[in-house]
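@here heads up, posting the sequence + SMILES for the fe (ii) ion run so it's all in one place. Ping me if the SMILES looks off, I pulled it from an old spreadsheet.
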Amino acid sequence: MDKATVLSKLNEIQRWEWTGVAQYMQYHFLVRGPWRAVFSDEFKEGADESLGHAKKIGDKIVALGGTPTLERAEVKQTIQLDEMLQNSLAFEEGAVKLYSEAIAMAEEWGNKALVILLEDILLEEQDGAEEWAKIIASTETGAGQKSASKVG
Ligand SMILES: [Fe+2]
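bot reply: prediction finished. Complex structure tokens:
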């Protein structure tokens, strides 16, 4: 494992975090209906968290002699809340995968501090994935409008 390979993986993460900033902000702007009262803030928090991660990863890329990317992956556009929730879960699961891969590389490279930095962020990504999964599960089990309309 060499530094260039690790830097390449860190920039892959940076690209993902910029995607999170843009995608979560777009959902923050666009979510509508009664659930806006809940999810607009939730999506803003997702954007803030991605920005915080981009700051940490960008700082580390520079410290290792690299240049943080300004690219991002595709933002999944939608105005449907259920799709926003599914896309948010998929985004966090993608982050878990990327950070897990980066941790394995940092371990092989022998950079313990980098491992710890990445592990701290991985915990937050995993928490995020689990939270979105719980939110999606609650809507699928019919706590909301679908079951109520059947009763009526
Ligand atoms: Fe993140």
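MO: The chain has one domain: 3-140.
MO: One more: The mean pLDDT is 93.
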